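name: query_chain
kind: protein
chains: 1
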Amino acid sequence: MKTRALQYKDICLLPKYSSIHSRSGCSTSVIMGKTQFNVPVIPANMKAVINTNIARWMSASGYFYIMHRFGHSIIDFIRLANVEDWQTISISVGVQEHDEKIIEMISEIDTLHVDYITIDIAHGHSERMQTMIRFIKDKLPHVYLIAGNVASSDGVYDLSCWGADMVKVGIGQGSVCTTKDKTGFTVPMFTCIQTCTGVINGGKPVPIIADGGIRSNGDIAKALCAGADMIMSGSMFSQCTDSAAANVVVDDQIYKQYFGSASSHNKGHRKHIEGVMKAVPSNNMTYHEKLKEIQEDLQSAISYAGGASLQSLRDVEYVEV
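structure:
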């Protein structure tokens, strides 16, 4: 197949007539499952992005999060969240035997309530993903299940048919991901979203999370224009002053150590490495300040789109640059 594929930087959104008196009146809220969240943005479920303290704050503040699955006890995290009665309990698992044991424990212990589970693997359009989706849906039929990553409409359709409620899309587009260089496989994100959106299963479109490639708040609006329901970003949140990434001082400037989930730094070995660690400059914002900035910028984007809610961004025209 030979065709031009677009990244976010390759397009510009075109403004439309607006009757909105104040952009502060534009709604950025989104519903996932049975819960409404303030913005359609998720910090990446990565060790250098989110931790228990951030997850606790996001749950209490009306934001969606996905706790990462690396180097800690998922069960202990769930227990803590239940004891503290969090509004949203959202975890990640893989497709290994120990991940199945986590699901077994959740299903068998009454006090281990979970709202959202994300099956998080590099190549989601696979037999092992099919097996894990069906295993979770059998053990925990009422959990809202997110699965990924894929980069094709066939992948979205199959994961949905297997039982996923939402599908995470994006292969090799993160700033610390080297999959595209190591393997040659990737799809630029704007085109990836367009390819993956609008897939129908059971008479309804399958909702998708666009994961990777976000370099600015404007890219979030572009992702929504392309058809994403939610957006995931790692780098912009790892740069926050209170992120899980370690601080490094260079020439009196604070940097954050941001690394990919498939990096040797995260894996602890050098087998099948498809990620790196980078020192990224701190944005000098807390999570609270960054999410507030994103909300305000999305409100402005909605006003330029001529509407009053996120839905208006679906109807915006764009040009290639």
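note: The first strand starts at residue 11 and ends at 13.
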